[in-house]
Amino acid sequence: MIIKVFGCFQGDKKGEPWEGDCSTREGWEKLIQNPKIIGERNKGVIVEHEVELKEKRPPRLYFLDSIQEELGRILGMTPKEVLEGPCQELYEVRKLITYPRSSSFYISRERYETLKQQAPALARLVGFSEEDLVFPERLDGFFVNDKKAANHSAVVPTTLIPTEEEVEALPDALKIVYKAVIRRTLAMFFPKYEYEQTTIITQVGAGRFKTVGQVPKNPGWQVLFQDSASLLDGVIEESEARELVKVQINDTVTSHLVPAERHVKKPPRHTNSTWLRALRTAGRDLEDEELIAIMNQIKGLGTAATRGAILDEIVVNKWVTVKQGKIYLSELGWLICETLKDERVLSQPETTAIWEQSLSKIAEGTNTQEKFLKNIYRYLGIENPHNNLIENLIKAVDRTDYIPFQDFIEQAVAKADGKLGNCPLCGKAVKVLGKSKVAQCEDNILSKEEREREAGATPVCSFNFWITVGFIKDKKKTLTKKQISDLLSDKGRTNLIKNIEGKYGPFDAYAYLSFNEEKGIYQVNLEVDKATSKK
After folding, report:
1. CA gyration radius, the chain
2. Is 352 helix (H, G, I), strand (E, B) or coil?
3. pLDDT tens column, 338-362
4. pTM of the prediction?
5. How many CB atoms neighbour CB 131 within 10 A?
6. DSSP assigned state of 477
7. How far apart are CA 4 and CA 23, in angstroms?
């Protein structure tokens, strides 16, 4: 009999690491080839064999954060879009789900009894029948809690149950969200997921090696989520289902030692879903146990109703960029983080915990509102000219190394000023004013006052050019700011501009800037791309 043994080399006591435990594949290779430690590496004895039937309960009912996380990933929407789109319509217009802005994942006894009666009809809407349901004799406090559902309860279906035809006629996003809410609710009335976990400890020489196998026995509630359209991360865990060979204690086996290599992986980039979760769990790595407890109690940063909007604001402010669903810190984001990294009040979640701690002490009578506000005022610099927020930010700016961000800062300043490039004649800024179709040097611009003061006044610099391209008057394309910047850069021309209207149909071309000596003006010319344009 051959058994493949994995993982931890154990000490004498169960779970105790052995002093020769290795952290690299090379270390394990060296260890298992050492005859003084392993002996004959292909001979082993079964010293422990344990088979345990385990079960797993269904996930909690939906609340705002979880429905935004999971459905946002499936629908490719931001948390705010999930809430204000399908969730709000299903609640406010269609009346099919309960209040979606709830931070509670509990329902009341009354709501539970109503859902229990509705369960057969709801089951039919997602392809199941009454025979699949199991109604427990006792209420499960994991789902039902009158006190915690007093103000708002979990997101569940309402008493208005549509027909199957009406559900199928819903727009795709609404249908996906509604069916997901039904499945998550029905999971209360399905059996628990059961699996058999086998653990074998094999003695090879002085080493004790563990082999673990897991075999599903009863899928239970997981059948609700097994179709690809409704499979939700965090609901069904992809475990390694591996049935092990049948052995008994004291059996002699031929062992196959497999080195256990430990990888330290980079944490994956945030998505909209994991980003939302990070806000909710912020503060769990604080050193102060009391502050950790406070952050757990208030459920991280923001509230269930505001976190989506907070994340949207960060994207709008361009502190991060979103590419293919993954979150990347922008140069502006890096700049802000570098500047504020040492200003803990602004950069660490413990600020929220400390303020909540102060508010709790005010409620208990061990602190006062006046004292709390006085500390806030001092931090803002009121009656405290030193060591306040403003002074600290000035010091942070002074000590930050901005050399890595120099190009970005120059581009940001130029963009704020409306600068698109440098004038080739005098070096001043070239701009496009308002809805003008002309780009011109800032010294080519005369103000209204200058024109009124001096009749026939001429600009200091003569540089300007039209920013429209094409041959049909009413269908000319206006160059974008990026394209104008490309014309004025060392690059000297734009990227390919598609579908420019010509006399004989649309064509693609590159635009470049040149000086027309005959007319004495700068103008935009086109270089037709023969590979993509129609003849």
Report:
1. 34
2. helix
3. 888 888 888 888 888 888 888 888 9
4. 0.64
5. 8
6. E
7. 20
